[in-house]
Specification:
heterodimer; A: mainly alpha; Cytochrome Bc1 Complex, Chain D, domain 2; two-stranded antiparallel sheet; 10 helices; 4 strands; B: mainly beta; Methanol Dehydrogenase, Chain A; six-stranded mixed β-sheet; five-stranded mixed β-sheet; 6 helices; 39 strands; 7% helix; disordered N terminus; oxidoreductase (chain B); Quinoprotein_DH_CS (chain B); metal-binding (chain B); PQQ_rpt_dom (chain B); PQQ (chain B)
Chain lengths: 185, 609
């Protein structure tokens, strides 16, 4: 895993829920003077604006949520998303993202939420009820650098292209032969 | 009144000074009074049996809920209420670990409540929900293990905080979920965090001051484990070899070797020994725990410890699963029962274990007497070698032999165990144990993982499915309630349930056994036959324990509802049918279809005549 140094100011920004991420690297941070007001903006509009920001900031051509599946095998990023999920999210969000009695299904979350929202919740956390908390992962470099991968894994699960359990990874030659960004099974 | 009583008991204690072991006189006195439920497992022996018989087979159908109390906390409610005779029920909650004293004479009016101030960052390092298995009581004090590793003592009269002690560091993945046990002037506590590469230990604090008195680790050098290879026994012989807690691990791996004792502690006041089991060894990837590529025992994970509560010194050990390959934590309660075996009276120790095996040991020596399957689907081992005390592992289901990055399929039981922490009951009248069990199997795929402090250290992925059914089983069942003969090693009767039975059992002199289900039912069955005689649907799934007590001539049954725990994680969306294709999730019953969150205490009794 690539070592990513996260500056203190960026961690602080994450805690306010305004952290933006792109392609597994933090390349842009948008801080707001009125974070609460901005939170209230209509979901769709806000999300699409941030999506565009993310796209602009992206270092590679892939967009968050992309995945490749060939014969039930997945690309490395989606696989890394599965592993990051099992290490950090599964304890509450259930095996393979299906949810538990106390934490929602992330498969459904990926269906409903934009990448920006998904990333913001992971980075900023969320107070749902007293004693019922989605923690902030703003100071967890491993999770931050895998948010896109987790999102891709959940998108693949939500689309029904990927089942439960640990997927296999596509061999490199296979991947090169495959058409770009396809969802083949 | 209570204070006077404890003075009287203290005096009695002095008079009885010739008795070698004094336990905690106050706690011992309370638990010997059949009207009270003064410790989570009912008595030091862990029997969860009550001599009360006002509620019995003849009138059980009249049992009514008298009042309910919402704890205001969602998520899994394990453990149960204590009743020490002062007209109040003492209950606790999952994180944030509130404590309530409820007036039994005023339908649960809150006499006092206490809520610790804890760092919420402890929540994500709790592997299997933010559960807590309950309070302990002695000498007018209540003891609680907070999730954030703070051990506290409260004045039971006022709820005032008397002392607190720090038992660990949640930023390294250490947490606390287990219920403390008071023995002598010490409160014994264990750490959780087996999925985070913690180094397990059991620690004793002084009940008056909160000062640490001793700590015995589950791994590492003998001086840390508090054992002496010349005198500590294993399978009836001195261990012999020094520092097995180091040498049975690859270089340094014992330092993150798990063995967290997060289950129950039991105590024999005559032998003056405490008993508990340790959890899984470090990572779930067995390959990372080998020496020169061969299985290593990873001592003292998944081991029953018998310790002297005064010093912590280990009298004997029995490792149930050397070199774990399935996450079969050995923390299940050690029931102390006196048995006749081969015409001989023995001081026994019975375990309905995670592994699917029911064990019977001699609790003086640690000698293994019986090891038989109580869950018939159990296939990871064919049997136990009674000479060596080791399981004979079935290579087909050995996740180590099958290899890293290989999905070993259809292993029974699942990592949840054929029985998890839900404590069993024992009736001295029938000589049988009663337990809720899990009928679930798994596929398990180990993979290479790296230790990072405070991060999960698991290294295996697994999927679960209901255990295959046999003739007469309920279709798709994922749990059963069983009566187990610990001497014969046989199931006497069983009653299937839709979901794993994750609640603690109760046996009573009224000819009844009680348990709760994940859908939220409290059920009473005939202790002789298992026939269901009564049920009541509480508002949320039950993973707590059914307790009973008598106040002013009236017997009560009380239980905490509040679905969650590992069962709430694994069964919420239903299990996968391994035969079905993609997207077939939920072909087996999903817990989400039956219950929702909610922390509720329900108190039952018979209507006034």
């Amino acid at each position: 895993m690539t070592e990513i140094q996260i500056p203190r100011w960026l961690v602080a920004a994450g805690a306010t829920g305004m952290l933006l991420l792109a392609t597994g690297m933090m390349t842009q941070v948008q801080a707001s003077a009125e974070p609460e007001k901005q939170e209230q903006v209509e979901e769709g509009e806000q999300a699409s604006q941030q999506q565009e920001d993310v796209k602009e900031a992206a270092a590679t051509e892939s967009t968050p949520g992309d995945y490749t599946i060939i014969d039930g095998k997945v690309d490395q990023g989606t696989y890394d998303g599965y592993i990051a999920f099992t290490r950090n999210c599964m304890a509450c969000h259930g095996p393979d993202g299906v949810g538990s009695t106390f934490a929602p299904s992330l498969v459904k979350a990926a269906e409903r939420r934009s990448f920006a929202e998904f990333a913001r919740t992971i980075a900023g956390g969320r107070d749902i009820q007293p004693g019922r908390v989605m923690p902030s992962f703003a100071d967890d470099q491993y999770v931050l650098s895998n948010i896109e991968n987790i999102y891709s894994y959940m998108k693949a699960r939500a689309a029904g292209d990927l089942g439960r359990g640990r997927p296999k990874v596509i061999e490199e030659e296979e991947e090169e032969e495959a058409s770009e960004g396809s969802d083949e099974d | 009144m209570l204070r006077e009583m404890s003075y009287a008991i203290a005096t009695m204690g002095l008079l009885a000074a010739s008795v070698a072991a004094q336990a905690n006189q106050n706690q011992l006195e309370l638990q010997q009074n059949p009207e009270l439920w003064a410790t989570q497992l009912g008595n030091y022996q862990g029997n969860r049996y009550s001599q009360l018989d006002q509620i019995n087979r003849d009138n059980i159908s009249d049992l009514r809920a008298q009042w309910q109390f919402s704890t205001g906390v969602l998520r899994g409610h394990e453990g149960g209420p204590l009743y020490v005779g002062d007209g109040r029920l003492y209950i606790h909650t999952p994180f944030p670990n509130k404590v309530f004293a409820l007036d039994l004479e005023d339908e649960g009016r809150i006499v006092w409540s206490y809520e610790p101030d804890q760092d919420s960052r402890v929540i994500p390092v709790m592997c299997c929900d933010t559960v807590n298995r309950g309070l302990a009581y002695a000498d007018g004090k209540l003891f609680l293990n907070q999730a954030d590793n703070t051990v506290i003592a409260l004045d039971a009269e006022s709820g005032e905080l008397l002392w607190e002690a720090n038992n660990g560091d949640h930023t390294k993945g250490e947490t606390m979920t287990m219920s403390p046990l008071v023995v002598h002037d010490k409160v014994l506590v264990g750490v959780s965090g087996g999925e985070f590469g913690v180094r397990g230990h059991l620690t004793a604090y002084n009940i008056e001051t909160g000062e640490m008195e001793w700590r015995g680790y589950s791994n590492g050098p003998d001086d840390d484990v508090l054992l002496d290879p010349e005198t500590t026994m294993m399978m009836g012989e001195p261990i012999g070899e020094a520092d097995l807690g180091v040498s049975t691990w690859p270089e340094g791996e014992w330092e993150r070797g798990g063995g967290a004792p997060w289950g129950w502690i039991t105590y024999d006041p005559e032998l003056d020994l405490v008993y508990y089991g340790t959890g899984n060894p470090g990572t779930w990837n067995p390959d990372q725990r080998t020496i020169d590529g061969e299985p290593a025992d990873n001592k003292w994970s998944i081991t029953v410890f018998a310790r002297d509560p005064n010093t912590g010194q280990t009298k004997w050990v029995y490792q149930k699963v050397p070199f774990d390959e399935w996450d079969y934590d050995g923390v299940n309660e050690n029931q102390l029962i006196d048995v006749e075996i081969d015409g001989e009276q023995r001081k026994g120790l019975a375990i309905i274990d995670r592994t699917g095996f029911g064990f019977l040991l001699d609790r003086e020596t640690g000698e293994l007497l019986v090891a038989e399957k109580f869950a018939p689907e159990t296939n990871w081992a064919s049997h136990y070698d009674m000479e060596t005390g080791r399981p004979v592992v079935n290579e087909e289901f050995s996740t180590f032999r099958q290899g890293v990055n290989v999905n070993t399929t259809d292993i029974c039981p699942t990592a949840m165990g054929a029985k998890n922490m839900q404590p069993s009951a024992y009736s001295p009248e029938t000589g049988l144990l009663y337990a809720g069990i899990n009928r679930i199997c798994m596929n398990y795929e180990p993979f290479e993982t790296e230790y990072v402090a405070g991060q999960p250290y698991v290294g295996a992925t697994l999927t679960m499915m209901p255990a295959p059914t046999q003739d007469g089983d309920m279709e798709g069942r994922m749990g059963s309630f069983i009566a187990w003969d610990p001497v014969a090693g046989e199931v006497v009767w069983k009653k299937d349930e839709r979901f794993a039975v994750w609640s603690g059992a109760l046996a009573t002199a009224g000819g009844l056994a009680f348990y709760g289900t994940l859908e939220g039912y409290v059920k009473a069955v005939d202790i002789e036959t298992g026939e269901e005689l009564w049920r009541f649907k509480t508002p949320s799934g039950i993973i707590g324990n059914v307790n009973t007590f008598q106040h002013q001539g009236k017997q009560y049954i009380a239980v905490l509802s509040g679905v969650g725990g590992w069962a709430g994680i694994g069964l919420a969306a239903g299990l996968e049918d391994p035969e079905a294709g993609l997207g077939a999730v939920g072909v087996f019953s999903a817990l989400d279809d039956y219950t929702e969150l909610g922390g509720i205490l329900t108190v039952f009794s018979l209507p006034d005549a």
